[in-house]
């Protein structure tokens, strides 16, 4: 089966066999450990762990290739804009200034500013793989059950589950409509001008919007007929019990978070690692 963006494909390995609640708690713990700390050494350690977890889960890079491209573009833009609007924030943060070179009197490149921006970039780059691993290894129904078990309203949890389920369907519908329009002579290749390609793309988007509205109405009617929302609580068919492997994973996630807190309060004395003092 060809894997697509946000398309859940069940596999039999350690990551897929974990409970959705376990993966949610571990994702929150590892994300908080990265977001709370500004120690680039620990953030790189968590990033390396996320790569290892990705390999263990058996996922394929092509499943996250498109998202990776968007994230890289976002990180580059963020890096440039941070320096453009706050070129001296690193020196204010660390209290020293070790100049590398300068463009103008305002735009001076220092090791402090470079460390701050690299740390900031690695924080984002560490969290995104963790989120992708969580989404691609968790059944949407089980994900909704996990959210409900940690206190989220089951209506909101179910709405998010439907959203995740709809992404692969929407991509599949787009591809089918695009193939149907191309068989009728619609040219979407690079041989056409950009203006013409944008105009031709509208011939795909409009049918996609109407098919989406039809799907929404169909699902809404089905949920109403089954009495969805009548009671304050509900049971979940997709929920999994917590087993031995789940307890091991929970202990691992808690240890990662505890390591970040220990490094912050007892080793560095603050959220920031300052090698310039």
TrEMBL record:
Pfam families, alphabetized: CbiQ
Keywords of the record: Membrane, Transmembrane, Transmembrane helix
The keyword Cell wall biogenesis/degradation is assigned to this record: no
Membrane topology: Multi-pass membrane protein
CDD domains referenced in this protein's UniProt entry, alphabetically: EcfT
Subcellular location, record wording: Membrane
Positions in coiled-coil regions: none
Signal sequence residues: none
Transmembrane segments: 14-36, 42-59, 66-85, 247-267
Superkingdom of this protein's organism: Bacteria
One cellular component term from this protein's GO annotations in UniProt: plasma membrane
Protein name per Swiss-Prot or TrEMBL: Energy-coupling factor transporter transmembrane protein EcfT
Native species: Clostridium porci
């Amino acid at each position: 089966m060809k894997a697509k963006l946000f398309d859940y494909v069940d596999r039999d390995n350690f990551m897929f066999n974990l409970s959705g609640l376990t993966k949610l708690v571990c994702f929150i713990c590892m994300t908080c450990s990265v977001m709370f700390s500004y120690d680039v050494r620990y953030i790189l350690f968590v990033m390396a762990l996320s790569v290892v977890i990705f390999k263990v889960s058996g996922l394929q890079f092509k499943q996250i290739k498109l998202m990776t491209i968007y994230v890289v573009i976002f990180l580059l833009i963020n890096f440039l804009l941070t320096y453009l609007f706050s070129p001296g924030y690193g020196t204010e943060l660390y209290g020293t200034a070790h100049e590398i070179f300068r463009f103008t009197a305002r735009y001076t490149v220092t090791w402090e500013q470079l460390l701050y921006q690299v740390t900031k970039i690695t924080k984002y780059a560490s969290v995104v793989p963790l989120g992708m691993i969580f989404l691609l290894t968790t059944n949407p129904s089980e994900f909704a059950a996990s959210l409900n078990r940690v206190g989220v309203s089951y209506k909101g949890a179910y709405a998010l589950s439907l959203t995740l389920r709809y992404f692969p369907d929407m991509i599949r519908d787009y591809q089918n409509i695009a193939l149907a329009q191309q068989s009728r002579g619609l040219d979407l290749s690079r041989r056409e001008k950009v203006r013409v390609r944008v105009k031709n793309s509208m011939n795909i988007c409009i049918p996609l919007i109407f098919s989406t509205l039809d799907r929404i109405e169909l699902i809404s009617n089905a949920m109403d007929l089954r009495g969805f929302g009548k009671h304050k609580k509900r049971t979940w068919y997709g929920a999994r019990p917590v087993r031995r492997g789940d307890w091991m994973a929970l202990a691992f996630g808690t240890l990662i978070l505890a390591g970040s807190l220990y490094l912050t309060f007892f080793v560095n004395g603050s959220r920031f690692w300052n090698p310039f003092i």
